[in-house]
Amino acid sequence: MNAPLRIGVLGLTHDHVWEHLQDAKLNPDTRLIAVADPHQALLGRAESEFHCRPYSNPGTMLDSEELDAVYVFSDNAAGPELTEMATSRRLHVLVEKPMAADPAGAERMLADALAANVRLLVNWPFAWWPQMQHALKMAADGAIGDIWQVRYRAAHAGPRELGCSEYFCEWLYDPKRNGRGGAFMDYCCYGALLARTVLGMPQQVSAVAQRLVKTDIGVEDNGMLIMNYPHAIAVSEGSWTQIGKLSAYMTMIYGTTGTLMLEPRVGGRLLMATEEQPEGISIDVPTLPPHRASATAHFVHCIRTGEASLAMCDPVLGRDAQAILECGLDAAATGTCKAL
């Protein structure tokens, strides 16, 4: 029987970290050992809830503890440096989306993991939806013909309005720590990854990024990214000003013989429309095997078996999504269409 992987955590300012710490705590294949973050309040919470040894300095933690892998849940800009610190000690890394603040950071992370011969996975919350994994398989298998459009909308009323912590909001509203923007980087990244997964790299990108409602922040609160392909279009929308949940986190995949619509989150339905069923029918979605049902379980599986990760968690695709986003930010800033 394999011993549990010993996990350290670098950064606690991304609010997604707490659900992953809980997942790791409950998983018999992982053991939480230590956490590093400069904020004493966050360290205190991690120590109290998860019995991790707290460190204010990541280097001290990495030098003091015997670890197998780390989770990186810092701001986007800090991700590459923390990843380098881990990979230089031959530790596997799971990093929260979009993995970095810019393509150079993402490329650096890839190179560091490759040089150290360790695994690097990117956690995307929608990767663990059963209906998402099944829809991607259906699309790849030709169930709705040739794909001509992919669309994803991520939207809520704003980080503060959603109840995000002060530590999370502090860097989400900071373009240097988030990555040249606000809602565009935070939420258009999902559709960029989805398009890359289904359609590959676009030829051209156009975008808009505007502050439409929130006059109290210095970054855009809405963005739209349009990706052009020889025979397809992909659209990614991100909003921090939407009231209510209608249309939020909906995924659409359009093919020449059918359309797929995914409701969000675990438990959401997968619907398919065809010429014979134009109103759409609900598709039975298989239960995910345990190693594809959560970031922690998948991370452990990939480390132990050496198998490829889900496409959505592949850092190469994460790097490509980062490049698409950067091109989109350039397009939005100049009002032009940018070639990739």
Care to describe what's here?
The protein folds into two domains: 5-123, NAD(P)-binding Rossmann-like Domain (Rossmann fold), CATH 3.40.50; 127-287 and 320-339, Dihydrodipicolinate Reductase, domain 2. The longest helix is centred in the C-terminal third of the chain and has 20 residues, at 315-334. The strands form two sheets. A nine-stranded mixed beta sheet has the order 14-13-12-11-7-10-9-8-15. Strands 3-2-1-4-5-6 form a six-stranded parallel beta sheet, with helices on both faces. The N and C termini lie far apart (47 Å). The chain is α/β, with parallel strands linked by helices and 340 residues long. α4 (79-87) runs parallel beside α5 (103-116) and α5 (103-116) runs antiparallel to α12. The protein has helices at residues 17-26, 40-50, 58-64, 79-87, 103-116, 130-140, 159-162, 166-172, 175-178, 183-199, 295-305, 315-334; strands at 5-10, 30-36, 53-55, 69-72, 92-96, 120-123, 147-155, 204-210, 222-229, 232-239, 251-255, 259-262, 270-273, 281-282, 338-339. It contains twelve helices and 15 strands. The mean pLDDT is 98.
